[in-house]
Amino acid sequence: MIYLVKPGETLTSIAQDFRISPAVLITANQLSDPNKLTAGQPLIIPGLPEPSSIPYSIMISIGRRQLTLLNRGQVMKVYPIAVGKILSRTPIGEFVIVNRQPNPGGPFGVLWLSLSKIHYGIHGTNDPSSIGKAVSKGCIRMQNKDVLELGSLVPNGTRVSIRQ
Fold first, then answer.
1. Active-site entry in 123, 140, 141, 147
2. Domain total for the chain?
3. Is the pTM of the predicted complex or chain greater than 0.90?
């Protein structure tokens, strides 16, 4: 996948967001000086397909508390979600799914889909009554059956757009 560096990002922060080591990024991009990244600079993120090659995409509406799964731009399914509370809001922006962890345990339910922003993901829940509310630490919570269905369809590299 090709990623465009955003203002203020460092090699270390990008590596953390994509759950890879800075050394892997340095090697994949043949960076002579990893401390000199510029906004807009393209970086190869090894191991992830180009999101445009994936027919699926995900649109998240924080206000509506809905996750919409699209297939080639057409609505396939809409799921109810829980979002971040006032003091730990869900981040707004464009992300991709970078990896997944079945049965992560605790409050994360039956599946965790990591987003390309460290500490954030789409996951199940051990508290189904929280769905539809603003109660999380910023993650997107889904019913366990829904996150399993979503995870069975979307591969790593799937684009996730989060809007207010």
1. 123
2. 2
3. yes
